[in-house]
Design goal:
- The structure is a homodimer.
- Chain A is mainly α.
- The first copy, chain A, contains 23 helices and six strands.
- Chain A has three domains: about 120 residues, Alpha Horseshoe (MgtE N-terminal fold); about 100 residues, CBS-domain, CATH 3.10.580.10; about 180 residues, Tetracycline Repressor, domain 2.
- The first copy, chain A, is about 65% helix and about 5% strand.
- The first copy, chain A, has a three-stranded mixed β-sheet with strand order 1-2-3. In chain A, strands 4-5-6 form a three-stranded mixed β-sheet.
- In chain A, strand 5 and strand 6 form a beta hairpin.
- Chain A is elongated and about 90 Å long.
- Chains A and B meet through helix 12, helix 13, helix 15, helix 16 and helix 17 of A and helix 12, helix 13, helix 15, helix 16 and helix 17 of B.
Chain lengths: ~450, ~450
């Protein structure tokens, strides 16, 4: 970052606009947006007005939505038109998803009619669909063009396209026939016909496909852009890799939140209000509280057992924690392998058999370690036996539940990450407590 | 996928090699690699020998390492040279990281001397460094070239470069002076001087920078390639976005594994052996078992309390689970925000204040719900009071520990995901049990 926030605030204070203008226009748009976010709103507006037209649009697209909203409120219609007409259409659509209705209307009003129509179409794709993250600004060529003509077309129209890395070859009905990289165009002789060198084996997705599966296809095939087609195989847009990266990072944060029993939030941590944070968490805590009450009720049925042998209570936390941890280990690995597409529900029996064998090894290691510890500490081999047997049974059960539930969720079309670790923990807890007291009664005799 | 595994196996069986050759050479390399992975090893080798030279290298780069190793064992030196010379150098280096020493030596022996030198250099960058994921095959230009000359150079040399999307302008000492996209070159007049239109405000990383921070810079600035420079600012390689995407997905799987107390594995779930899986989990389970024993010991100090009022034991699972869950919620959000760079340790006090207020709201909601439930169910307002107060105290403590530990880990240069949910759970458990019995003794009188 070439300038710090305090330097910019000072130049503003001293009204050294010329010097500030020069400094700002050598900086990266992302850095300027970051600084504007930390400045007071009124200072940010003044900085924004000093930016050149191109830079202004890019900076604007990188601002957080609260600042965008404030800024739009300060801009005249002419200024707003200047900014939005220079933004890529997919960025404008992202913006409109975040803005209140009055601002959406204002942006549509200032947009030119052609853009307005495209924006309206894009706004209609369902959230999380491939259509919602695509851009309609791609480079299209015709099969019968020569490479020289294709390059000429790119030279003429390329400036308005988000990327020219992959160019798509369409027929007269806009049906997708092929794809060619700009690199292949550049290294081919100028009189080659595009149709002869284009790649015809094309990976594409439908507008209504899930955005996560679209970006996972991009990762799998190493694509820079992914064509999005309608039901007649007409090309309507492309997903660019920078948007795909954002989706991957979002989905992963979402998975981590869900695994830990928090409703994911679209906003960054510090931009989310305390009340919103609390409301993302309380329903899960209440739900899990109810399930752990069941474990409590099971315990209360064995009151006689633990008043007769109070030592039994001492081992409860260890049994419950270990069960929960064993289950979470399995579920976390399965959830992240399902997310990357490495596993699918059809692998269930392979996974089950693998987890079963893993759980046997883990059980033996933990049961032995624990049995020895208890025997040495308390000199009571019966208690050691009860705890170790329970531990072994709990670990096996936990791994099986831990791998089964996320795969079942996926099979049912739900997000596997909904099967959070806490959820598995509470189920395993109930099982382990039940097993514990029954083994205790069997080994220690009628208590 | 144009062909299924069974179709290919059948064509092999019937020795219809011509037909198989034609089919295979229209398919995507990633799909062929996937099919080869599922075929028997000997069949896979026969399929591989049917691929055209270019396709063979691409298919090979996409195979899992166990198949690569088997295949290399079947290839003659001449065949191996043909495959590796057509691979991008960064893929060759990835391959060598996975292979046993004998194969590494064989690959180096068949490589041409220039490649061998570059490979040896790349092999020396530490794991997880920017240098370890970069490719030295980038397009370089000179400041005083015209756009026409630059395009001519790309036309001549582009075929050997991994990407020409961004071209880098170097001086005679290979010091990085600027960057220009191929799009900007194509739309500029042919006689423009490259130095006049190149971008000089360049985001770059050092070869020894952490690979995660390098890819997060690519995400932040929306870059397709990131230049990697040495300590004298000489350009030594670039990180391409496809490799960055792989790193992002790997790091996120790694975080999910660590959060759930599993040592992350480099191999896919099904390719990892049962014993390896067990050994990735047992140390954590043992460690956490030891910490939960401490909670057990705290409980045993209050034996008199729960034998006098056995109902107290009933609420232990609920208190422990809720505490653990509250802490994991906070830690998971902090860990994923730290990973995306949205939060940094300097935000600690903002985060602490936020979590404190969130915990107050969560506490009140849970304590009230729980107090009413216990009073209605057992008609004992003293017990209701004891449990609700403990619950409130536990939630506040859990959120504070949950946000503090990951930030502390980051501050100390450790991976915040090491502060797994189970780890926080066991700490919070001990606190909550201690609080519980002390509040019980205070409210219910000397038991």
């Amino acid at each position: 970052m070439t300038m710090t926030i305090s330097m910019i605030a000072q130049l503003l204070e001293e009204k050294k606009y010329n010097s500030l203008y020069e400094q700002l226009n050598t900086m990266n748009a992302v850095d300027i947006a970051e600084i504007m976010d930390e400045l007071q709103s009124e200072q940010a507006v003044r900085v924004f007005r000093l930016l050149s037209k191109d830079l202004a649009a890019e900076v604007f697209a990188n601002l957080p939505s609260d600042k965008q909203e404030f800024l739009i409120g300060c801009l005249t219609d002419a200024e707003l038109e200047r900014v939005t007409s220079d933004m890529f259409i997919d960025d404008t659509v992202d913006l409109m998803h975040e803005m209140p209705a009055t601002i959406v209307k204002r942006i549509l009003r200032v947009a030119n009619p052609a853009d307005r129509e495209v924006i309206n179409e894009l706004l209609n794709y369902p959230e999380n669909s491939a259509g919602s993250i695509m851009t309609p600004e791609f480079m299209d060529l015709r099969e019968n063009m020569t490479v020289g003509e294709a390059i000429e077309k790119i030279r003429r129209e390329g400036i308005d396209k988000e990327t020219i890395y992959n160019c798509y070859i369409l027929d007269n009905s806009r049906i997708l026939k092929g794809v060619i990289t700009v690199k292949d165009l550049l290294i081919a002789p100028l009189d080659t016909v595009v149709g002869d060198i284009m790649e015809t084996n094309i990976i594409s997705v439908h507008t209504l496909s899930d955005r996560e599966s679209a970006v996972m296809a991009m990762k799998k095939y190493g694509l820079m852009t992914l064509p999005v087609v309608d039901s007649e195989n007409r090309l309507v847009g492309i997903i660019t890799i920078d948007d795909a990266v954002d989706v991957i990072v979002d989905e992963s944060s979402e998975d981590i939140a869900l695994i830990s029993a928090v409703n994911p939030s679209d906003d960054p941590y510090l931009k989310t209000s305390v009340v919103r944070h609390a409301f993302n968490r309380i329903p899960w805590l209440l739900l899990l509280m109810v399930t752990s009450i069941i474990t409590g009720l099971i315990i209360s049925r064995y009151e006689e057992a633990f008043t007769a042998v109070p030592l039994l209570v001492t081992f409860l936390p260890m049994l419950m924690d270990t069960g929960g941890n064993s289950g979470s280990q399995a579920s976390a690995l399965i959830i992240s392998s399902l997310a990357t597409g490495e596993l699918s529900p059809k692998d269930y029996f392979k996974v089950l058999w693998k987890e079963f064998r893993i759980s046997i090894i883990c059980s033996i290691a933990l049961a032995v370690a624990n049995g020895i510890r208890i025997f040495v500490q308390y000199g009571n081999w019966q208690i050691a036996m009860v705890v170790s047997l329970t531990l072994a049974g709990t670990v096996v059960c936990a791994k099986i539940i831990g791998c089964t539930l996320p795969m079942l969720a996926k099979r049912l079309g739900l997000d596997p990450a909904l099967i959070s670790s806490p959820f598995i923990t509470t189920i395993v807890d109930a099982f382990s407590v039940f097993l514990y007291f029954n083994i205790a009664i069997a080994i220690l005799g009628k208590l």
